[in-house]
Amino acid sequence: MHDDTDHARVALPSPGTGSRDRSMALLTRRRFAGLPEQVQHARSFVALAVDGYTAADDAVLLTSEIASNAVLHTESGNGGFFEVSVYIGASFLRVEISDEGTSLESPVVRLLDLDAEQLPGGRGLAIVELCATRWGQSGDGSSGRVVWFELPCDGPALRRTGTRT
């Protein structure tokens, strides 16, 4: 996962997307040290990349949840790294978080019980499930994993000046 060729491979849409156009362009990409404090920097990175887009707030929130999982639950958090890539399609925004996870198991989404008292944590993927139009993961179990999400996006929002960015 160290060059653009590999990233182009994992950025392809998942099977079953139908005939809709899923082409997308890379906006930006950055690697972060696998430390808890780097999640905040990943959020800021995505916020800057998608500033003005209609899905910006949700993109920052979901990036935080998935990057936190990468640091807490994979080898990324043991002196490793995670990488954030931001793509834009005709009608969607896609963020991919590449980590050093080796599990082939699909992430488990815990059901939220809004009436029960819950300990902090454990809600990240439920939030992703709730907010994202589509999300998933890819990887071969040996060289890392990519967890991605897509949000509907019509492009940059109108600025106060009335011009598009």
UniProtKB/TrEMBL annotation:
Residues of the Histidine kinase/HSP90-like ATPase domain: 35-131
Species lineage: Bacteria, Bacillati, Actinomycetota, Actinomycetes, Streptosporangiales
Region entry Disordered, spans: 1-23
Keyword Kinase applies: yes
Protein origin, superkingdom: Bacteria
Pfam families: HATPase_c_2
PANTHER family: ANTI-SIGMA-F FACTOR RSBW, ANTI-SIGMA-F FACTOR RSBW-RELATED
GO molecular function, one term: protein serine/threonine kinase activity
Protein name in UniProt: Histidine kinase/HSP90-like ATPase domain-containing protein
Record keywords, A-Z: Kinase, Serine/threonine-protein kinase, Transferase
Kinase among keywords: yes
Segment forming the signal sequence: none
Gene3D superfamilies attached to this UniProt entry: Histidine kinase-like ATPase, C-terminal domain
